[in-house]
Fold this sequence. Notes:
The chain is α/β, with parallel strands linked by helices. 32% of the residues lie in helices and 20% in strands. The longest helix has 14 residues, at 224-237.
Amino acid sequence: MCPHACRLSEGSIGFCGARSAKGGQIHPLGYGICTSLALDRIEKKPLAHFFPGSFILSVGSFGCNLHCPFCQNWQIAQQIARVRQKPSPKGFDQAARCGFPTTPEDLVESARGLQEKGNIGIAFTYNEPLVGYEFVCDTAALAKDAGLKTVLVTNAYANASVFASAIKDIDATNIDLKAFTQEFYDNLLGPGGLEVVKRNIAYATSHCHVEVTTLIVPGLNDDPDEVEALACWLADIDSRMPLHLTRFHPAYKMPDAPPTPKSTMYSLGTRARRHLEHVHLGNM
């Protein structure tokens, strides 16, 4: 599924916590398991230039193939995957403790039922959707047939064939570009990450609406020259591509780290706007 290329023995679980070996094949553990469901404003994804003012039914499962120490959504992306691997207490079902079962058909029907409230479709979000890309593909295809819009919120750390399959029926994606140095990905996230994500951003722009997000973490990826290089690279693809620079708040394994200074955010926004028409500051 991704560059980790986990080699799994029977019954073992991959780095993402969401894929397991069974009968000589890899199975997505989160297929049809919903841990999070909400009708969100589209701007929360964040998407600022895709049906602004609308709502979208947002669904999450569990697991992620990047273990960012600064993760702002770690309870869903990391913690639930670990809880589900432990034996259930007597009298409790694991799925009930960590989510509820659903189907692509059920989600599409729910999304259609919310159209009168301004819902335009389904967003795959909260955890990393591509660790369960089979469910994304099945649901997005049905949603497309039903006339609904589909959104993918992803780190795009996926092999080319998987990403192409997942994006096929997607109308818009927000891709989380963690930083713009290979060293950052190598040290914190995974092998070959930067080039994999850059490749998938470029691929997505020819298939759907794309916006990019970078969480600015003090001391890790807040160098002005790096952020400007990131913006310049995006502009070479499309200078109108929206970039969201999001302010870090203490979370997960960095609870004592200070939030990103607002002055830093404003300064980085100014640098990025030298190259891009649409730069948005988030979590301010």
